[in-house]
Design goal:
mainly alpha; Serine Threonine Protein Phosphatase 5, Tetratricopeptide repeat; 3 domains; 15 helices
């Protein structure tokens, strides 16, 4: 029995030693590929060699050199997270990724690098990155939600900050987080003197207020719904959002027993001087129902502005 255990232990040790030698060999191959500027080979070898901090650093550099910027940002961030004693090295690597991403127009990598810097080196100066925000509006909602708060903390100039806040609010709206988007977009309206920015912030703000009003109505909170719907109509007085908000406002009035006011509200939408559309039809359907009918507030919604 003891002999069998010894043989098994020896076999396991031999396999482990063999794996270690193989991994060491792959690291050496990766080093050789790196020196020959064969970045794809270096990346493959470093990945196969293991995931120690030393190998993570080599992988992060090889992916950066090879233009695999999102992978490089991921590797540098992981290095700084897994090995706190190498956080400064990882932050410097992420700064290099951010610079390369700016030059390449790689917004996803730029956002990932910024988010990584915020995570592992909160004190890292981001002013230079914050000053170059021409592409911030093109970031995906998830990338914007990660990158923009970090850039705002770098105290950019007023114009850049307003652009970033607008992009953040629109990103939150696209992610379905209207409760978060509304105060951000309201902040843009309060501070900016730029008419174009005001218009750009007003449209998603009105849409979010409509969604919050519809949600309040669906939750049987007509008072809250009326407040949100009234705000939506004020921010988009001549658009589809306002017309949909008025239909829902009538629903809220009807749910409170004020059928006369509800019908007047629906009548205004049904007879509005616009080409008939689905919102016109929705208002007409409301008018055709008996006063005691149950109101379905979620049947039709406008297209996303």
């Amino acid at each position: 029995m003891n002999s069998a255990r010894l043989l098994a232990t020896g076999f396991v040790a031999a396999v482990a030693a063999g794996c270690s030698v193989a991994q060491s060999g792959r690291e050496q191959l990766g080093d050789e590929a790196w020196h020959d500027a064969r970045w794809a080979d270096a990346v493959a070898d470093y990945r196969a060699a293991g995931d120690s901090p030393r190998l993570l650093a080599k992988l992060a550099d090889a992916t950066l050199q090879g233009g695999l910027l999102t992978q490089s940002a991921e590797a540098w961030t992981r290095l700084g997270t897994d090995a706190s004693d190498r956080a400064a090295e990882a932050a410097a690597g992420l700064a290099r990724v951010a610079s390369a991403a700016e030059q390449a127009g790689n917004d996803a990598a730029l956002a990932q690098a910024i988010a990584g810097l915020r995570r592992i080196a909160p004190g890292w100066p981001l002013q230079r990155v914050a000053a170059r925000m021409g592409r911030v509006a093109d970031l995906s909602p998830a990338a914007a939600a990660e990158a923009i708060p970090a850039l705002l903390s770098a105290s950019p100039g007023r114009n850049a900050a307003e652009l970033m806040l607008l992009a953040l609010g629109r990103a939150d709206r696209a992610r379905g987080s209207c409760d978060v988007a509304v105060p951000v977009l309201e902040g843009v309206l309060r501070t900016t003197m730029n008419a174009e920015l005001r218009d750009s912030a007003t449209t998603p703000l009105a849409w979010c207020e409509l969604q919050l009003g519809l949600a309040a109505l669906a939750s049987a909170h007509p008072g809250d719904a009326e407040r949100w719907l009234d705000r939506a109509a004020q921010h988009d007085p001549n658009g589809a959002v306002a017309r949909r908000a008025r239909v829902a406002f009538g629903d809220a009035l009807a749910s409170e027993g004020d059928s006369t006011a509800a019908r007047l509200t629906w009548q205004a939408v049904a007879t509005a001087p616009v080409p008939p559309d689905s919102l016109t039809q929705l208002a007409v359907l409301r008018l055709q129902r008996p006063p005691a009918a149950v109101i379905d507030s979620g049947t039709v919604r406008p297209e996303h502005p």
